[in-house]
Structure formats: C-alpha cells, structure tokens
Amino acid sequence: TRTHTHTRTHTHVGGMADWSQVEVACLEVRAPWAAALLDGSKPVETRTYALPPALVGARLLVLESAEGDGAASATPDYVDCETGGLAVAAADAVASGALHVAGEVVFDASFEYASEAEWAADEARHRVGAADASFSWAAVRARGGGEARVHGW
To answer: 63: closest CA among 73, 71, 53?
Structure first.
C-alpha cells in the first residue's frame, strides 16, 4: 500500500461522537482522485467537515469508488458489522468491484478555508475547479443553504 502524509491545523469535529472507538477508519474517495491523493499529486483532500481529532495521525484506508457525478457517497457512513444490514451493502460493493482499498493515508490535521478566495488560491493542491458541479465552493454553498464551509486535510 502507498502512504502519503498531509499537514495543517485542526478545526471542528462532525459526525460520529467517538472516533477513538473505531477499529478501522476508511475514507471513500472516487476514482481517479484516490490515486492522486495516494501518489501526492493531490496533497489536500477537501470535505465539508473537519477531520475528527481521533483520526489526526491515524492510518485511514482509502476506499476507491467508481467515478460518478454528484456528491452522494457510494458507501454508508458507518458500517455496524453486528447488525449486518449496512455491512452487507458494503460487502456487496466490494464484491462487485465498485469499491476497493486503494491504499492508506495519514493526515496530520485539518483546516477550514476562510473564504472562497483562499479556497480558489489553493486549487493546485486540492484540484477542485471552480466550475466543478459537485464539489466546487458554489456547489457546497448550494447544498449548505447559502453557506459554504470547506475543510482541507
């Protein structure tokens, strides 16, 4: 597996309350961006949430999903292996080849872009263009009801 380390300062936690209890954390990234993240040609991953503190410095498996349009995930946010329901959906995605472990990544921390101008100035690192229909600042603002919060890891 390939590992790439990223650095910045940390901000807000979202989602799951206690990430320290997770045995294996995974990050879904669509093709071709998973490979770019792992080989370092995309040194910043952008999300609408900060990297949870318990995952700072932790190895995350990068789950590469197929290319697609839209910001909807191809995998569930959390897989509870004891209940089976979501685990079966994730297992089906892996079995079908729609999802596979591409490598692992370690993020030293995360930061929040203070403005659209700051985000745009960092395009060479995060590689999300201003015209991207799903992941641009404008797309995030539209999904956020007029507010955009974009974090880089």
So the answer is: 73
